[in-house]
Request: fold
Amino acid sequence: MLKGFFNVPKAVNEPVKSYAPGSPERAKVAETYKTMWNSQVEVPLYIGKEEIKTGNTKKMSAPHDHQHIVGVYHQADRALVEKAITEALEARKKWAAMAWENRAGIFLKAAELLAGPYRAKINAATMIAQSKTIHQAEIDSACELIDFLRYNVEFMTKIYADQPASTSDMWNRVEYRPLEGFVYAITPFNFTAIAGNLPSSAALMGNVVVWKPAATQVYSANVIMQVFKEAGLPDGVINMVMGDSGMVSDVVLSSPHLAGVHFTGSTGVFNDIWKTIGNNIATYKTYPRIVGETGGKDFIIAHPSANAAQVATGITRGAFEFQGQKCSAASRVYIPQSLWPAVKSHLEADLASMKMGSPEDMSNFITAVISEASFDKLARYIDQAKNDSDAEVIMGGNYDKSKGYFIEPTVILTTNPKYTTMETELFGPVVTIYIYEDAKWSETLKLVDETSEYALTGAVFSQCRYAVEEATVALQNAAGNFYINDKPTGAVVGMQPFGGARGSGTNDKAGSSQNLLRWASVRTIKETFVTPEDYKYPFLG
Reply:
């Protein structure tokens, strides 16, 4: 049904620019970074058609230079959060009725704006206020967000084209309606792409959104709103509010018009949201959809047959890119005794060659962690490992917050497979390694599965296909995204739909049609062409 009308451009993954020395894109982003660094921005609340400045502001600074203020953002009170809900519901009257082609056109245009005129700006904003290197910013705030916007349109058209069977006397069809009410989108600091995708994926399906970005990501969130506005997103469809997290959620989750929550963040916060919705369930007009991607304690396990250099690279990239602040980052590693000397040698060489500092210097591999609270937490765990009898800091372990929140890439070796840093999510450049006896491969797989409450990502390195198969089966519930001979990070939209189960979320797979289906309410319509006029069936005689 209607397949001939689904002629939107075929989604393709946005190519990653190299930013190699001397390249034009490197020069462009360097210039943009400097301009933005030397100016200050004032981020308003985006509610309906208004850009509201309340005067109740908080400063935004760079984690790698925390005394440098790049701007302020305004905070909402309860009345303004309620206003955002009201404006969203008013906008829904037209937005929900808009033809899908016109909704699609807005977000396809947003993708092209990010690919072209806004690329340097969104990357520089992510580098400045989230302390990402240019490579990490490029694959996130540019490429992944562009991919989300393009692929979501393609996923939407495939969903709409999925229709039931009909017969000559009966026409059956389904409508994929937006949810009745509004969606609450809560986004984290660590991925600008997630901040753009969570509100826009729901909006693409005809929903209206109240969006609360993380306080430490507002700087680049403001650029996302500028892009959406330039792309033609109508007022009130996505309303961006900042303020006290508890207060904002209290107002939103108390509204009878709450139709869904699209969340990425900590497991504890998500649990509280779920509990609040449960307590308020009699309040709502409809059962809210709850979609969440939460924590991770992601693993790498190497088989004795694995290539040591490949394992070491998987650890280095998987644990230390973006300072380990990815929910998918490798943070616990299991290595066989026979392989450990070679892996250790490669790791030591890798860490010795890494440079740490401001992302403005594009030769740096490591920059700062996001905040002082994060820095202090990580420093406590590193110090504990230095003092505990069953753990040893064998690489890195230094830290300094005098200028920026810098923590060296740190490797902890433990003799206890249940040591605290093997179980606790740290969200920083700290990885813990446990050495197992080669003959205990199968027992170690069981250990990997049982150690963590999370089940987000994991990786196995092996040149033995029997071992790969055994690990794939044994760890089927331990990771929603499982990697063979690769690091456990770097899921690509349209290729590796992302999400995990257990304490890692609802596994609704961002970057796939499964996620978009959560933001649609299906209505089945049956039309009979020749209607019966007698109740009697043939069996009655």
In short: The longest strand covers residues 65-74. The radius of gyration is 25 Å. Residues 294 and 504 are 5 Å apart (CA to CA).
